[in-house]
Amino acid sequence: MAAKMSVEQPLWRALTGYRVATLLYAIGLHLLVRGEYAHPVVASVYIGALTVWTACTAGKALSAERCTVPFLAGDLTMALTGIVLTRYVASSTQLAEGVTTLPSIWTAGAVLGCAIKGGWRWGAAASALVGIASLLERGGATRDTVHNVLLVCVASIAIGYVVEVARASERTLARALRIEAATRERERLARDIHDSVLQVLAMVQRRGAKLGGDAAELGRLAGEQEVALRALVSARSPARDAAEEHATAAAGSRAGSAPGGPAPGAEDGAERTVDLHRLLAGEAGARVTFSGPGTPVRLAAEAARELAAAVAAALDNVRRHAGEHARAWILLEDEPDSVLVSVRDDGPGIPAGRLEDAEAEGRMGVALSIRGRLRELGGTAELVSVPGQGTEVELRMPKHV
Fold first, then answer.
1. Nearest CA-CA partner of 109 in 126, 90, 89
2. Are 53 and 78 a contacting pair, CB within 8 Å?
3. Half-sphere exposure in the Cβ direction for 283 (13 Å, CA)
4. Cβ of 190: how many Cβ atoms within 10 Å?
5. Pairing assessment for the beta strands 380-385 and 338-345 based on DSSP bridges
6. Can you tell me the mean pLDDT for 197-217?
7. 61, 207, 267, 359: most buried, per Cβ within 10 A?
């Protein structure tokens, strides 16, 4: 299973580094002006407490799960206490000159922690408390105080808003990935149904109509079931999408725990491959001619199986639509970056618009059994048909998928 993505995780790491760096700055500033304080011992006790608190809670700012509300409350309390305490420990000269508060810029870390954890509202509330404490420490609204308070407030609100947008984007992306997985699974099941059940039902319908009697009734029923199953395969409803999302997740967890062995014909190694030449050669017969290179054509096992299944679906379309006596030719070409397979027949061809009409009616042999198989693995399928001159299907699969 892929690791969970988190856009906000870099912000937590940055906040952890910020708390450490600003603590060192506050300690250095305190050592520089300690002799000017009216109560240097009290100031040193606070700096010591701030150091212990930052060291003991260093791991709390590493993630949203670790950053709890009690920790944020404690962090903010340490910042507010230091700001208010500055007025008591500073000398009158320092107060007149506008002394830097004891926690200095460490205070911004407490506000940003609230913004990252709870969004812009938490950030605005924390910055408001810091602003009130700063006004009390200064004894009024000076220009520098208002400037610093507004800077912290704007920064915390902006970061909090960005975090909220990032979280909403992550939820949207996760939902889109679940829907895509469910759609891919639905198309895979639809291909399997088309390659087996639907073809059997169609055969029963044709044979029953030829035999007549009770067999004709059986054929009629098979035809009705074929139409109903095609409609079910091509259905798209929100309720079904949601149900298949859960089914896909459950199937994925079962598949992840089920034992499995290497695919037949696979080689051991970082990437299992099979000889596509051998797979396609089995399709040759009295009316199907296969041509390919004299050497094996290696392709990833999954890609080779899907490509061979697409070729089988194309040959089945030849038998069904071009007639039992139609001939077909399979040409395998091994290109540097991809594998190209062409399936050509000498049938009557496909009238213009026939494929679009068939797909609209739920007959999705080309759309699912051929194009759908290759599209999921990065391949393409092109169909060229001229009425009276047969049909050619070109299947291209990249070697590295």
1. 126
2. yes
3. 29
4. 21
5. unpaired
6. 75
7. 61
